[in-house]
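Thought: the user wants the 3D structure for the chain below. I'll pass the sequence to the structure tool as-is, report back what it returns, then summarize two notable features.
Action: structure_tool
Action Input:
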Amino acid sequence: MLNYLDLSGTHHEVGAALGRFGAKALHHYAQISPGWKHIMRFRQHPMVQSMQELVREHHPQYWAELQGMAQGLEMPFEDVFVWNCRGDLWAWGPDGCTTVQQPGAQTLLAHNEDGDPLFAGHCGIAHIQAGLDIAFTAFVYPGSIPGHTFGANAKGLCMTVNNLRTLHAKPGVPRMIVTRQLISLPTIASATLYLRSIDPAGGFHVTLGQAGTDTLTSIEFTNRHTSIINVSEPAGHANHMIHSAMRHQPQIITGSSGFRQARLEQILNAQPSAEPLKILFDTDNSEFPIFRKDPNDPDTENTLASARFEIQANAVQWQVHTSQSFEPLYRLTNDQIQNQATAQPPLCAQPVNQ
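Observation:
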């Protein structure tokens, strides 16, 4: 199950609606998840206090969104904020993902969203119009600010995000706030300019595509360095830094990430134009498959959804898939649902009132 949400209003109102959507799931998660208990130990950490000040200063709109989320979740703001900093504080969190990049005459971008299997059945595809910002549609987790998964916006910018288990984090803008901003920007150029202007706390890998362009942009950023390259040949990315300027940065490379990266390169070297969903659904290595559904996954991650973006001259046509099915659950154009026949009835379709 992957709900469809249609949310509009102020940032606070959108956050409150997202909170209400994820409240039941996150309350249950907080009771049973060792990861939640570990992250909550950082509530009063000086680094968290510094990150709060930076978000208030640089992104007051997302500060309001998190405050609204805490209200909708009926949880303390301090808990919600630190949960949204989990990857900055803890390199071993259950966040994964795999991306396939295929630039060319038909530019394709595809992505497996790998997360904690405890969230299976509790996530959503959310169309969000927050204030006067550019509208976007993205995969959302209970209790997490949007933008750190996959999605596309009304300007034809599409984005996928992979976890990096970076080490030696320092105070900065939380990485999930950084990607929340990226999904709200109009162009790849504005996104890269923003990334060069801020100091993030943790790290992510981001792939950006844009309607009207036939190249993809691959970005690896940490709290110390940012590497931005144009992808001119088919490539893939798992959950560790592989750019020549970044691969020696301190990080954790798990067995799953290492094997998935190797398998991506093996397939793409043999078949550069292979259907990206076939690559994402690959289970050739039974211990470390690309598509992950083992409840005993070594990184405690399962594939919760897959996305396939076709980047065209005037639009981004994309699809959301679940359970290794080639039949899409949702079809979208840029940020808008295209075929309501494949969509469940939208949740919270009206502006949210406090």
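Final Answer: Structure generated. The chain has one domain: 93-342. Residues 93-342 form a domain with the Penicillin V Acylase; Chain A fold (CATH 3.60.60.10).
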